């Protein structure tokens, strides 16, 4: 897993309801834009790496192509690994390992949290707070989720422009 990523110019602002087009791969000067930095919650990861949900295949393709830089933290990855083992999904050990490895090979982990982290609103679901923190700590552009508690924060505009929270459907339109 890679631990570092370069920085470059910021992508256009994107909101939950009004999303703009993805930036072109190169700016007018011919300089490559940096990939869009995204944090994906566990349910989105399940859609992309376990169920291969065809509605969201383009999201995984953006990660695989490098247009998006998937960012995470160890505790978020641990949750993904744990959820892969739930009996509900009936995944054998090989399928669990394959799904985890497919994502882990693409994700960037932040080993050093910021020295002075910006305060975040509290999510009503404590288990989801780590995704907000990962998005903040990675200076993510987006947190892609279908989680109602996280989406409520987006509707209430509680993040002060740090990053945007989008549904997978909204991310597809961007």
Number of DSSP-assigned strands? 5
User: Helicity level, as a percent range?
Assistant: 25-40%
Biggest β-sheet strands, sense, barrel? 5 strands, parallel
Rg, nearest Å: 16 Å
Number of helical segments? 7
- Reading off the top of the CATH hierarchy, the class is best stated as Alpha Beta
Biggest sheet strand order reads 3-2-1-4-5
Average pLDDT score: 80
CATH superfamily: 5'-nuclease
Short description:
The chain is of the alpha/beta class and 174 residues long. It has helices at residues 42-49, 57-65, 74-84, 93-104, 129-137, 148-155, 168-173; strands spanning 36-40, 68-72, 108-109, 142-144, 164-166. The chain starts with 35 loop residues before the first strand and ends with a helix.
What would the keywords be for this entry?
36% helix, 174 residues, 5-stranded parallel sheet, 10% strand, Rossmann fold, alpha/beta
How are the SSEs ordered, and which strands pair?
Elements: E1 36-40, H1 42-49, H2 57-65, E2 68-72, H3 74-84, H4 93-104, E3 108-109, H5 129-137, E4 142-144, H6 148-155, E5 164-166, H7 168-173
Helix pairs in contact: 3-4
